[in-house]
Design goal:
2 helices; elongated; two-stranded antiparallel ribbon
Length: 150
């Protein structure tokens, strides 16, 4: 399941925003702002995933479907050297590489892009969206969002 969730999340992204958290650097009255690369490093626990599908152009077979699942078993570890791993409660460990682009996109394994919708010291939300219109007039739209907490 973990592999499926991550695979779906690694589809082309559109969209959006990244919030920065200010943290006290330990000196009186001084605040430092961490970069997204610094802020995202650490161990993240899965919270929820929401997957939506919308099929149009199929006439009577047009359909929409949304499912939300709790994913507390899904772990994501991002190291400061751009390496990381995913696992399901310590099983099915998969290695990965990552980098942040434009403060709101994460490139995984140099081929898949995730949009960072929210990044704080305790919350990380990714999304992905994919449209397939290779079989006109049918259009298949899928959206995935995954929420993590520290």
């Amino acid at each position: 399941m973990k592999k499926l969730v991550l695979s779906l999340a690694l589809i082309s992204m559109f969209g959006v925003a990244c919030e920065k958290d200010d943290t006290d650097d330990g000196t009186t009255g001084t605040t430092t702002t961490q970069t997204p690369e610094e802020q995202i490093v650490g161990s993240w626990k899965g919270d929820t995933e929401t997957f939506s599908v919308n099929i149009t152009g199929a006439g009577a077979n047009d359909t929409s479907y949304t499912q939300t699942n709790q994913i507390p078993h899904f772990n994501l570890i991002l190291n400061s050297d751009g390496s990381g791993q995913t696992d399901s409660l310590g099983f099915d460990v998969d290695s990965l590489t990552w980098k942040i682009v434009n403060s709101n996109l994460m490139i995984l394994d140099d081929e898949d892009t995730l949009t960072i919708d929210l990044l704080t010291s305790t919350n990380l939300n990714f999304s992905s969206s994919h449209t397939d219109n290779s079989n006109p007039p049918i259009v298949f739209q899928s959206d995935l969002s995954i929420k993590f907490t520290k």
